[in-house]
Amino acid sequence: PKEIFLKDYKLPNYYFDTVDLSFSLSEEKTTVSAKISVVPRVDGAASPLVLDGVDLKLISVKVNGNELKEGEFYLDLRHLVLTSPPSGNFILETVTEILPHKNTSLEGLYKSCGIFCTQCEAEGFRKITFYQDRPDIMAKYTCRIEADKSLYPVLLSNGNLIEKGDLQGGKHFACWEDPFKKPCYLFALVAGQLESRDDNFTTSSGRKVALKIWTPPQDLPKTEHAMYSLKAAMKWDEDVFGREYDLDIFNIVSVPDGNLGAMENKSLNIFNSNLVLASPETATDADYASILGVIGHEVSLSSNACRVTCRDWFQLSLKEGLTVFRDQEFSSDMGSRTVKRIGDVSKLRTYQFSQDAGPMAHPVRPHSYIKVQTHSCVCLVYQKGAEVVRMYKTLLGSQGFRKGMDLYFQRHDGQAVTCEDFFAAMRDANHADFTNFLLWYSQAGTPIVKVTSSYNAEARTFSLKFSQTVPPTPGQPVKEPMLIPVAAGLIDSSGKDMPLSSIFHDGKLEHVAYGDQPVYTTVLRVTKGEEEFIFSDVPQKPIPSLLRGYSAPIYLQSDLTDDDLFFLLAHDSDEFNCWEACQILGRKLMLSQVVNFQKRNALVLDPLFVHGIKCILLDLSLDKEFIAKAITLPGEGEIMDMMEVADPDAVHAVRKFITKQLAFELKQEFLNLVKENRSSEKYVFDHTNMARRALKNTALGYLASLEDEEITELLLHEYKTATNMTDQFAALVAISQKPGKARDDALADFYNQWQHDNLVVNKWLALQSSSDIPGNVENVYKLLSHEAFDLKNPNKVQSLIKGFCASPVNFHAKDGSGYKFLGEIVVQLDKLNPQMASHMVSAFSRWKRYDETRQNLAKAQLEMIVSGKDGFSENVYEIASKSLA
Ligand code: B3K
């Protein structure tokens, strides 16, 4: 497999101006005719025209109407090459045949439960027709689709419907025209038995946009929330970013098979059904929130990335980092900002930090890759990329950020550009000093920032000394200091924010406050390996509140004592930092008990920690979802990441111990929370009701850890009386914590009730596979052959296989049974769907973090996979070989 480098980017020698596609769909094969007007970049500079094409059967190729003869073109496994095309503009026509029903990779054109649909990002278009499959080729498309009318009554593509009609032999056709130039990764086609929920949206300039959400007829009632989310997202995008949707129709199609969540194809978004379909009885609050967020994401992509796209796939974060930031902001505005930020930061810590510290670490904009789909890892390109965009906003303020966005669109509308172009727009619109900021795009690894503080009572100054290092990552042994925005405030002994006046830094006194308006939070621009910020006019020794709102994706190591942390937990006006104080205390506690566990000492729970949790539980002024988050202990993965040698058994035992002790000591408080927060009325998706359910169900989770008949009764009661999936599933999760009859009966009952609903059954699979009950691998083997499982469906693979890898004790079982299970699955899955297989194999990537026994066992599986006895895809090879390196 060949590695591709960012530094090797070259402009294309040929551009495409218009592309007319014609599809004849049928059960055995699909014929694709493509007519492309080709424009050489430098007129007369004749060079071969290399078209990408994978799994295509070429029927004919013509240039300016003349069939090409032998010698004028050749084919290899991945290309069609025109050896000496004409020197001026010309028309290229190809006819190819493809087999969508055999396409289990789910890239290109494939069939999902009787529906033809496409997935072209990143490199799926080359599985449809011969093309220069790269995002900097932007052309205007038309698309004619012909198919059997009774099997495929609905025929959709991008843009506007310009013609449709019936044909002989029970067939019909539809012609679509997209007025905007687009890269081929935004092309889409859908054909099937679908019905739509219709609505409309009037843009700020008064244009009426038809909104349609398409599903198989039986699923249509479950699209109400998706339509609500679509309208809310379009309105938000206009209000906050001034972006108006540019076409007269916005289609969303829900399909049950897909490797991804959703795809922003121009005016024809294709969504995984789990991100469209919801009803109170079948979807949880988390599902409702994901639908809102992902629709927000795709709407935002439709209005920005479909207008300004990436020059090449190294720049993926240009559109996706920006869009994740925007969808996070949208969800924050629709619910609780603090709770959303806590959720996003937890994800960052669980996935991004871990990836950034392992063999697959790469910068937000990678320098190289073998397979772009494999490499465009969501946590580094999307989530860390979103943090980079958030830092622009933190540094520039809301208005400055909006000015930067406006300039970006003004400069680049209709173009394919780079991360530098985005950076330049932000800088130029604000005349900002962004020294060392671009390094966020090119340096991998999570920066470690250490801070020490000191107070000088005589001079009334408070000093913060920072030092930063970025750890070495594969291929990048030495790093430069970066620009890190650290939002900071000072809190006085009564718990109030102190007004900030000025800061001495870098030989200069900088005013923080101007005029009468007090300022309580300032953004410190940390840019060097070591530097000091001295706050002046500080009347008493403050407790600093650092990195407010998590203003940069870093590890912050401060000299705050436990007392300081308990103080911040009780008083910080920055709610995020209240939660953070609780998390730091939780991490310290867990790590100290891990040492006890390893030394075989008795585990102990600090009474101060119990008291802190109790205060949060009883504080009526706090948001209920915030309480639920604050009393949730840091995840096991996060703690393992902080250890020299990760010890899953110790971390698991400690987390279980602390949970159980808290439940024991605060049993009455938890019982009260369950009683006080039960759902009585109809399910409502809003923050107040979600918060109530979150708190009740978190309390239930704690109680479930107790060995107590009365509690088992309570859990069963909650399960049976639940009126919505959030409550029913939370009760089932709680009951399933312990092996036994109650668990077996409840799981069987749940399956009986919901076996007709695939999305609910997937939750049932995930709950069992991720269970930490001893020896669960046997159960997961059994589930592989259960009627509810299908290795070809990515949602089921995610539920069962990824779910299993999320269980530290069973996946990392010391007898190697978990690793062996995954090794076997990867080999099977790779033959069907390399993209999914590569996602799964990445669970092995951090094998060197474990003890020697586990290392050897995991390494043996990776070696078996790359030994290639059964062959392997580039996707799997890239992850497995980099993990072994
Ligand atoms: N841009 C798509 C994802 C495509 C992933 C292809 N491997 C939609 C999204 O980012 O949500």
Key words describing this protein structure:
Peptidase_M1_pepN_Ig-like, Immunoglobulin-like, six-stranded mixed β-sheet, eight-stranded mixed β-sheet, Neutral Protease, domain 2, 885 residues, alpha+beta, binds (3S)-3,7-diaminoheptanoic acid, single chain
Overview in brief:
The protein is 41% helix and 22% strand. The protein is α+β, with helices and mostly antiparallel strands.
Q: What is the terminal-to-terminal distance?
A: 15 Å
Which whole number gives the mean pLDDT? 96
Shape: globular
Bound molecules: (3S)-3,7-diaminoheptanoic acid
> In what order do the strands lie side by side in the largest sheet?
6-5-9-3-2-12-15-14
Number of helices: 27
Structural class: alpha+beta
CATH class identity of the domain at 13-193: Mainly Beta
Strand content: 15-25%
CATH level-four homologous superfamily name of the domain at 13-193: tricorn interacting facor f3 domain
> Oligomeric form of this entry?
single chain
> What is the second-level CATH architecture of the domain at 13-193?
Sandwich
Beta strand count = 33
**Low-pLDDT segments, ≥5 res:** none
Radius of gyration: 28 Å
Q: Major β-sheet, in short?
A: 8 strands, mixed
Question: How is the CATH topology of the domain at 13-193 named?
Answer: Immunoglobulin-like
Query: Helical amount among residues, as a percent range?
Result: 40-55%
